[in-house]
Amino acid sequence: MKEHIGFQIIVIGILHIIFGLIRFREDLLAMVMEGLLATGGGEARGWAFWFTFAGVLLFMIGSLISTMEEKNITIPVHLGWVLAIGSIVGLIIFPVSGFWLMLVPSYFIFKSQKAVAVNDA
């Protein structure tokens, strides 16, 4: 069974972007209206940018993993660890957040590694 790990991360990235555009719409709109150049100063605008941009990064990572899955390239297990540890640290700092979502694809990366190890035996 294919878990579509890349697709899971793409969806999380899209949700992150959508939520960022809604949650930070006033700050982001003000930045756009000011022409974007050097408009990221201040705590609120910094949060607005980095939260939304994190969704773009997740989308890119998900796209890469999706391509790896299509080409039957094994996803490195260390990526599962990075996602899991990053999520756990994020959950410690922000317990009421979406960090728990990234535990799902990290679990499936670990599961796929176990499947590869069994198939290689």
Automatic annotation (TrEMBL):
Q: For this UniProt entry, which segments traverse the membrane?
A: 6-25, 46-66, 78-104
**Does the keyword Membrane belong to this entry?**
yes
What is a single Pfam family found in this protein's UniProt entry? DUF6463
Q: Name the species this protein comes from.
A: Spartinivicinus poritis
Q: Which InterPro entries match?
A: DUF6463
Q: Which UniProt keywords apply?
A: Membrane, Transmembrane, Transmembrane helix
- Record-given protein name: DUF6463 family protein
UniProt superkingdom: Bacteria
